[in-house]
Write a structure and sequence with these properties.
By secondary structure, the chain is mainly alpha-helical. The protein has ten helices and seven strands. It has one domain (31-260): Cytochrome Bc1 Complex, Chain D, domain 2 (Orthogonal Bundle). The chain is 43% helix and 7% strand.
Length: 260
């Protein structure tokens, strides 16, 4: 047991040394969540015919073209049937909404358009319709570099997210940073702890057997440390997402991601 503990400590030291070298050499040592999955899961994500998240992309494409509301307008009526105008949009969200004077995430923006532009009821958070539309739009950003945080107006939201990230929460008195900053790459049970760069959301998670948002994933972490989760769409989730996307700035989007 002593030898095993020493081996773990040595590996951790080597990892820290490698990260320090990469930083000093100007090399981006950050790794997306997909880098911590098995080769089989990585292959599933890369192959659009095998990636189960592509079903949500296809469903979102149909919803994109479908008329909604009293005016009978679709998303395509304004933005085009091929949604080319959405290229890179997910990589810039959460974004600052000047009209509301606050940050808004991608799902919130879609719901806002649905309600204010189409006159249709806002789709339910974490519901099938909104997830499909968000996955379809985010897929248009696959390969785009994350740029959230370049807008200075997001600074207060990002700092609020950073504070939540570092706060000890729940009955277990743990913070997000303790797992994903201090122990990334180590095991938590049978799972490897990722660095929590949200490059693939919405993701298809094999545990869920379904597509889900970053808010659902954070909610799972909150319940895991026995903390009271926020309501979907809450400002706290938007702040955490803004911080995490800024933390991943420059990394490539890979939606829809596939995770264990």
């Amino acid at each position: 047991m002593r030898r095993a503990a020493l081996a773990v400590a040595a590996l951790a030291a080597l990892g820290a040394a490698a990260a320090a070298w990469a930083q000093s050499a100007g090399v981006d040592a950050r790794r997306p969540g997909s880098a911590y999955t098995s080769r089989e899961t990585q292959a599933m994500q890369r192959d659009d015919k095998a990636n189960p998240g592509m079903l949500s992309v296809l469903e979102g494409e149909e919803l994109w073209k479908a008329p909604a509301g009293p005016a009978g307008r679709s998303c395509a009526s304004c933005h085009g049937a091929d949604a080319a105008s959405m290229d890179g949009v997910a990589a810039r969200h959460p974004a600052f909404d000047a009209t509301r004077g606050e940050a808004i995430d991608l799902a919130g923006r879609i719901a806002q358009c649905r309600e204010e532009r189409q006159g249709a009821p806002a789709p339910r958070r974490e519901g099938r319709e909104l997830l499909a539309l968000a996955t379809f739009v985010a897929h248009r950003s696959r390969g785009s570099r994350i740029s959230t945080g370049e807008d200075a107006r997001l600074a207060p939201t990002i700092e609020a997210g950073r504070a939540l990230w570092q706060a000890r929460l729940g009955q277990l008195n743990l913070s997000c940073a303790q797992c994903h900053d201090d122990n990334a790459g180590r095991k938590l049970g049978a799972s490897t702890i990722p660095e929590a760069h949200p490059t693939g959301y919405p993701i298809y998670r094999l545990e869920w057997q379904d597509i889900g948002s970053l808010q659902r994933r954070i909610r799972g972490c909150l319940t895991g440390v026995r903390a009271e989760p926020f309501a979907y769409g809450a400002p706290e989730y938007v702040a955490l997402e803004a911080f995490l996307m800024d933390r991943a700035r420059g990394m490539e989007m890979e939606t829809p991601g596939v995770r264990p």
